[in-house]
Amino acid sequence: MEHLLRVRQRVLDGILCVDLVKNTLAGRLDPAMYVAYLTNVFHYAQHSATVIAMAGARAVQRHPELARYLIHHADEELGHEQWALDDLAALGVPEQTVRASRPVPACAAMIGYEYYIAGHANPLALFGWLYTLEAMGDDLGSRIAKAIGAQMGGPEGRGLKFLAGHGVADHDHTADLMRVISAHLTDPADRAEMEHVADVVADLYVSMFRQIDAQVGR
Known about the structure:
Elements: H1 2-16, H2 19-25, H3 31-59, H4 64-77, H5 80-90, H6 95-100, H7 105-119, H8 126-151, H9 161-184, H10 188-216
Helix pairs in contact: 1-8, 1-10, 3-4, 3-5, 3-7, 3-10, 7-10, 8-9, 8-10
């Protein structure tokens, strides 16, 4: 798991260097930045259950244990895009405005890459994407939710459903992923492809934050 742990640290370091995250943690929340972040969250979260289930279906014959995990996890991801929509509504952004928007290029690229891996390449490699995003939810979700809550009226403040929810759920998800990968994703070729996907997604995820920062900060 050393490679995935290095990717996890690289993503954490990269995100913590982005101004929108640094400013939020320092008590200088820019609501427009947060709205842009949640908007991109909506765009990728609405596809998560689909791509995970797709990968699980393609893995059934070759790796039933990994397929079982993916299909179960797809069910857990259902409706998470609604959390982002609820948060945005609480911040005064209508649903139709969110749906009419477009993700930043890195977010759009990540969505397309997920579908490519799940539907056409090695579906087991999708575990690299899963681990990267779940680990960041574990590392930063609760921390940033607390910082935003303190600036918007306390820890139960409006617009925190997605961040706070993933800060809690992703801790267990990350531990489960480590266990499942260690026990069942043992073929060196599959591992290498999973690690490559983790590397690609790490770059895209950090780039998404940078592009949001640059887009709103113009």
